Amino acid sequence: MLAKRIIPCLDVKDGMTVKGVNFVNFRNAGDPVELGKQYSEQGADELVFLDITASHEGRKTFAEMVTKVAANLSIPFTVGGGINELSDVERLLNAGADKISINSAAIRRPDLINEIAENFGSQVCVVAIDADEVDNEWICYLNGGRIPADKNLFAWAKEAENRGAGEILFTSMKHDGVKTGYANEALRTLSVSLGIPVIASGGAGAREHFRDAFVEGKSDAALAASVFHFGEIKIPELKAYLEAEGICVRN
After folding, report:
1. Domains observed in the chain
2. pTM beyond cutoff 0.90
3. Burial readout 75-100 (b: 16 or more C-beta within 10 A, e: otherwise)
């Protein structure tokens, strides 16, 4: 069995790490360079850095900040936000990213997934999907959850896989920052239907929520932000708990 991964997420806005609830009401969570270094030292398996307003503001992700964060890491590093073309991918890989996360740009121009996979390999391409359940259907959203897209979560995830995505990062918007657990039913549907890893995002508030994402949601990795940023859950303690629950994790 492949070890399950624990992934802290740095949502960066105006050069600082922030955390919101349901994609709004952000509060400051600290310096991304320092936080990234701490998580690398504490045993995080990977780190995700999302420039959360880049797409909405129509600009590129800050490569300088990516370089500073990457310099302090010894774990795989995924970067997303404002990536629209291959030159953006190349720029961020050169800045120190190991993987690239695309979301709005992939929905607007799905061929971008094919292009990244063909030029850099599927392992570089993470397709992030922000979705919300509306009238019993999971609908994808653009621009950091601001604009509904005419795409079903499960159909879009399958298309992304077919186009060459190496992983799916699924965030449930209604679970984001609420700390009541992940969207395990939707996660399970994704995990069972896809042949690539699924990363759970949105809802972590207790150690049990990570366990449930792996056991009930069958996810390959669990991403979280505020519980790590504000010291509510320590990564070494979380891993020890999961191991005691019979879940294979990396030490």
Report:
1. 5-244 (3.20.20.70)
2. yes
3. bbbbbbbbbbeeebbebbbebbbbbb
Residue 227 in this model has a pLDDT that exceeds 50: yes
Q: Report yes or no: 247 and 4 within 8 Å, Cβ to Cβ.
A: yes
% of residues, the chain, pLDDT over 70: 90
Q: In Å, how far are 77, 115, 130, 226 from 19, measured between CA atoms?
A: 19, 32, 16, 6
In Å, how far are 39, 125, 180, 195, 239 from 114, measured between CA atoms?
A: 32, 9, 36, 17, 35
Map residue 163 onto helix, strand or coil. helix
Tokens (6 digits) for 221: 């990795």
Q: Please state, in angstroms and as integers, the Cα–Cα distance from residue 118 to each residue in 96, 112, 121, 192, following that order.
A: 20, 10, 6, 25
CA pair distance 9, 29, nearest whole angstrom: 11
What pLDDT digit, counting tens, does each position of 155-195 carry? 999 999 999 999 999 999 988 777 899 999 999 999 999 99
Q: Determine the average pLDDT of the residues in 233-248.
A: 97
For residues 228 and 222, the answer to whether their CB atoms sit within 8 Å is no
Query: Pick the catalytic residue: 51, 88, 130, 176?
Result: 130
Binning pLDDT at 50, 70 and 90, where does residue 19 land?
A: low
Q: Is residue 130 annotated as part of the catalytic site, yes or no?
A: yes
pLDDT at 28 (0 to 100)? 60
Residue 44: count other Cβ atoms within 10 Å of its Cβ: 24
